[in-house]
Design goal:
There is one protein chain. This protein has 106 residues and is an all-beta fold. The protein has a single domain, classed as Rieske [2Fe-2S] iron-sulphur domain (Rieske Iron-sulfur Protein), CATH 2.102.10.10. The protein is 0% helix and 44% strand. The protein is built from no helices and eleven strands. Strands 2-3-4-9 form a four-stranded antiparallel sheet, with no helix packed on it. Strands 5-6-7-8 form a four-stranded antiparallel sheet, with no helix packed on it. A three-stranded antiparallel sheet has the order 1-11-10, with no helix packed on it. Bound molecules: FE2/S2 (inorganic) cluster. FE2/S2 (inorganic) cluster binds next to loops.
C-alpha cells in the first residue's frame, strides 16, 4: 500500500485558517488550510503530545496552544521552543476539489 492516497475531505470543508481532525490508518492528523494552501501535519505536538488543533496559524507556522512551540507547516520543523523534535507531515494531493493524503509515502 506504499504511496496510496486516500481522500479525507473536500477542499470546501476548510476555510482559510481552518483545521480538521482526520484519522487515517491509525494515525491522527491535523488538516489545515493556510494562505490558500492545504497541509496535513501530526495532530499532536512533539513537546508533550497535546493536540495542536486550535493553534494559531501564522506566517506558514502553527503555534501549539499549550506552551507555544511553533512548527513550520510545510516540513514540520521546529521554529520556536519548547519543542525540539519536528512533527510528522503527510504528503497531500488536491484533485477534483478533494484533499487526499498518504501515511506511507514512497
Ligand atoms: S505540548 Fe505543545 S508546546 Fe508543549
Amino acid at each position: 500500500m506504499s504511496g496510496q492516497y486516500y481522500v479525507v475531505a473536500a477542499t470546501s470543508e476548510l476555510e482559510e485558517d481552518g483545521q480538521m481532525y482526520v484519522e487515517l490508518n491509525g494515525e491522527e492528523i491535523l488538516l489545515c488550510k493556510h494562505q490558500g494552501e492545504f497541509y496535513a501535519i501530526a495532530y499532536h505536538c512533539s513537546h508533550e503530545e497535546f493536540a495542536l488543533e486550535g493553534g494559531l496559524l501564522q506566517d506558514g507556522c502553527i503555534t501549539c496552544p499549550y506552551h507555544g512551540a511553533e512548527f513550520l507547516l510545510s516540513d514540520g520543523s521546529v521554529q520556536a521552543p519548547p519543542a525540539f523534535e519536528p512533527i510528522k507531515i503527510y504528503p497531500i494531493r488536491i484533485e477534483d476539489e478533494t484533499i487526499a493524503i498518504t501515511t506511507s509515502p514512497e
